[in-house]
Structure formats: C-alpha cells, structure tokens
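Ticket 4471: requesting a sanity check on a complex prediction with NAP. Repro inputs:
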Amino acid sequence: MNVILLGSGNTATALAKLMIQHEHRVVQVWSRSFANAQTLAGETGAEAIRSLSQITADADLCVLAVSDDAVADIAAQLHLRKSVLVHTAGSVSIDVLKNASLNYGVLYPLQSLRKEATSLPGIPFLTDGNTNEVKVMLYDFAKQLSGKVAFADDDQRLHMHLAAVMVSNFTNHLYAVTELFCKEHQLPFSMLLPLIQNVAGRLEDGNAFDLQTGPARRNDAATIQKHLDLLKNNEQLYQLYQTITNSILQMYHKKEELRL
Ligand SMILES: NC(=O)c1ccc[n+]([C@@H]2O[C@H](COP(=O)([O-])OP(=O)(O)OC[C@H]3O[C@@H](n4cnc5c(N)ncnc54)[C@H](OP(=O)(O)O)[C@@H]3O)[C@@H](O)[C@H]2O)c1
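Returned structure tokens:
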C-alpha cells in the first residue's frame, strides 16, 4: 500500500518502520515542523510536504499520528476521497474523522512506542472503520503487520487504553519511584531487573491473580509494618505502598483497609 504519514513523532516513526518492513511504501510525510517531516521522510524514502494541501490523492492510506488534542484540528483541514484516513489514538473517537474522508477508521497500536528504539517491539493493533469494507480492509492491513489484531469500537478501545495505562504507565511509575528510593539508599536498581523481567514474563504461563506473591498476599502484617516504618519520611512512597497493599489485602483476604 502507498501510505501518507501526518505526524513525525514516536508513533508515526514506529509505524513507518513497521510498514516498510512489510513492503508498504511511505509516499509523503507532513508534520507541524517541516524539519521533522524532512527527517522522517529522509528515513523512509518519502517526500516531505510543507502543507496539507499538497497531500496526494493517490495514496491508499493516510495515517494521522499527531498528539491526541491535535487530531480533530488536523482532521478538520482534510478532505480526502480515495485514501482511508486513520488516527492512532486510544481515547479519541472515530467520529472526529467523519468530515475528513469518505473512508476512515482507527489503527491503534497497543504498545509503548519510542522513535529512538533501535528495534521494534511486537505491536498488537485495535482497528475500527466507518463501513464494513473499511473495517475489513484495516483489520487485514493490521494482520499483515502484527500477529495480534482485534476489532474494537470507541468504547472498547477506550477501556483497553485505560488497561494499557494501568499495566504500562503505572508499573513504569512504580519503577521510577523505586529507582529514586534505591538511589537514596545507595542500592543498585539494576539488581531488580531479573525480578521485573521474571514477573512480567511468567504472565505468558498463568493469570495475574494466581501469580501474586509478597507480604500482602501472605497477609504478613509484621513485614508490612516494617516496610511502612521505613517509609515514614517518604510521603509519596508511603501512600503508594499503603494503597496497593490495601488493594491486595482486599482481593485475597477481604480485610478491612490498613489504618496505619
Ligand atoms: N507513543 C505511544 O506509545 C503511542 C501508542 C499508541 C498510540 N499513540 C497515539 O499516537 C498519536 C501520536 O502520539 P506520539 O506518541 O507519536 O506523539 P509524539 O511522539 O509526541 O509526536 C506528536 C506528533 O504530533 C505533532 N503535533 C503535536 N501537536 C500538534 C499540533 N497542535 N498540531 C499539529 N501537529 C501536532 C508533532 O509534530 P511536530 O513534532 O512536527 O511538532 C508530532 O509529529 C497520539 O494520538 C497517541 O495517543 C501513541
């Protein structure tokens, strides 16, 4: 397929690499900053364009991969006929594209994407389309790019976006505050990497509920108290520790919340 990219950030760059790996062609790149469009166009063998009015009418697919709050603004400036227009956002309605093209949909990559990454991670996709024909076309296209593809309407995609925030952004935040805690106590955070990888990796073989371990899972009040004592001067970690401990106690021991 011939593809136009609108945007040149993490998502546009990762999708460009993935599409090229699967022998699709990036024909044009537009970005708010022309220099950024030129960089991505240079990497993908495409033409960089300065204005949305220069978009070719011949492309099969036009990927609008800009920040969530800019999707509607850019869509309002598009009037495509042949190309299927997609956005890539988890929490933006498909309807924002309805006046921008006859054929439109969503190609939402369910992955944390960074343009600096040297290799592409596996990227599951959630797809949607405004007609059955577009739904099938985008599903099939995503299937070429990935082993994991599912159809999702706005509501399903928004729920999955929330789920992605929980397992990715929230866990990373826990890593970040723990990294600081380790620094403060001259402990090497890198010693925790095998543990992090093991716990995430074993989800392939079981469900998260059954795999839970730790003091709260064992209802070990003495250890929990020792940990909370260590955190007395660290308000942020104290609250996180307490909130998550309470959630685990509720799930496995139906206990009243800790009041410490
Ligand atoms: N990154 C991820 O992990 C990920 C995963 C799934 C879905 N998504 C979705 O993919 C979309 C793009 O995200 P991203 O991660 O690629 O963001 P990003 O790396 O921050 O890049 C943002 C892009 O949007 C452009 N932009 C920002 N504000 C704009 C405005 N007001 N008008 C026009 N263009 C504007 C930027 O253009 P310039 O750089 O030229 O200024 C840049 O090309 C979002 O809808 C996001 O929800 C991201």
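Notes from triage: Residues 158-253 form a domain with the N-(1-d-carboxylethyl)-l-norvaline Dehydrogenase; domain 2 fold (CATH 1.10.1040.20). Leaving this open until the requester confirms.
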